[in-house]
Here is the input.
Amino acid sequence: MHTTTRETWAAALNTLYEDEYVFVSVGPRSNHSWDADAWAVMRRDVSDPRGWAGQDWDKDRNDQPTGVGRRDFPFNVVSTEQISRNLHEIDADSAERLLVALMNDWCHITEVPGFQENPEGLLIAARTLISRFAKSRTCYTNLTEARDTRTPNLDARNAGPGWTPFTEYTADYGLAVVSDSEVGIFWSFNPV
Here is the structure.
């Protein structure tokens, strides 16, 4: 099994999201309910239990008209029930592909720069991120197709996948990865 270290985690984050408007943060599991822990991560109420790098372009921004004074910006989730109702379980392979697809504004994995030439390189970076959460992990997404299948199609070129919005942006796609000890939130925003 692949072991993720602080260094491999940081390198994978850099490979996938160096210039992307994404939120990547991990928090501890402290409740019986994973959705409450996910909400704590989105609200920035907790920090990474290992002290590893994340990505959060909005953490220190106060110039956003809708985000002033909101620790949860850009998320506009109102309850843990909304999280559990609108995030649906997907399998590990789909979660890895989704982490790569988050690099495209409309969540098309085939439109990600470099994917056609070197899909395995990007998928290895995604696998590194996912492997942090152990084999007992479960993965959840806001893609609407995941309501009916644990393997949503991220290859469609003519239309992006549907999603349940968690922000006020044009599009936002995300993944929650839950293990016995941690919850990771990976979210991409298209503010156009």
